[in-house]
Amino acid sequence: MITKLRDYAERLNTRHRDIISSYIWLSPSLLGVATFYIIPFFVIVYYSLISSPINPRFVFIDNFIRLFQNDAFIRASSNTLKFSVVAVPLAVVLSLLIALMLETRIPLKSYFRTFFLSPLMVPVASVVLIWQVLFHPNGAINEFIMLFGASGIDWMQSEYSQFVVVVLFLWKNLGFNMILFMAALSNIPRELLETAEVEGAGPFSKFFNIKIRYLSPTLLFVTILSLINSFKVFREVYLLTGDYPYGDLYMLQHFMNNIFRSLDYQRLAAAAVIMTIVMIIIILTLFIAENRFGRDVEE
């Protein structure tokens, strides 16, 4: 009995030492995350609930009400939502289709892969320069369509402006998403696919009943990554159009950048909190959907 108690005490001490050692090794990373992410986030929440940093007075949700009464915020939120609803599904679906295409035996496969990966090596400023050459009122696209008798379009000042940015977003992000899907496809057990083929399953049946189930974690990751990147498209739009672009391109990041310049920290903090809440809700919904859809595969 004493020997068993001694062994249990030693195991407990070893476990405690391992936990303490783990926290010691993690402490630099935890300190960095707390300093640059967690503490600033609570500071932003605090700013969103007070009247001003100089004369702090608790106003509860007055800053949020004032924000939702602002037409610029409503337009920026609507434009960002429309852009994400269009761009994110396209980025996920097209990159998956490209990965499936490159999984087959097609000629010039390496050239196709290089073509889709090349945007990852191009700086954003260079990408914007290419788009300016293509979509300028006197650019290459207008010169091409005028060959067929059509009139030129001022792309960045028309209803087609979001389409231009969606194409830019896809061109910049499809390659990385494609690599993630190709890696996930290579990890699907070959014996399952071979058994399904022997049983007479067709390509569509194998895709929807086997491949898509094993791809669910990667689908979740690529969707979240594309969603985050869709909120970061401000860089490209800002370089293309400046502080105040055409109405359809006025994104949340433009709004937040402009009110930061006006030092309206309360409205900026309220917008950041709302943006964070929306992102958390979307990501939690995606996690719940993936957990239910891929549970049987993990088991």
What report would you give on this structure?
The protein has 299 residues and is mainly α. It has 2 domains: 1-48; 68-298, MetI-like (MetI-like fold, Orthogonal Bundle). 77% of the residues lie in helices and 0% in strands. The chain contains 14 helices and no strands. The protein has helices at residues 2-48, 62-68, 71-103, 109-117, 124-135, 140-146, 161-186, 190-198, 203-214, 216-231, 234-241, 252-261, 265-293, 295-298. Helix 3 (71-103) packs across helix 7 and helix 5 crosses helix 11 (234-241). The longest helix is centred in the N-terminal third of the chain and has 47 residues, at 2-48. The radius of gyration is 25 Å and the shape is flat.
Q: Treating each run of at least 4 consecutive H or I residues as one helix, how many helices?
A: 14
The CATH architecture of the largest domain can be named as Orthogonal Bundle
- Mean pLDDT across residues: 82
By CATH's scheme, which homologous superfamily of the largest domain applies? MetI-like
Broad structural category: mainly alpha
Helical residue percent band: over 70%
What is the count of β-strands?
0
Largest sheet features: none
Contiguous low-pLDDT stretches (5 residues minimum) are none
Form type: flat
Cα gyration radius (Å): 25 Å
CATH class of the largest domain: Mainly Alpha
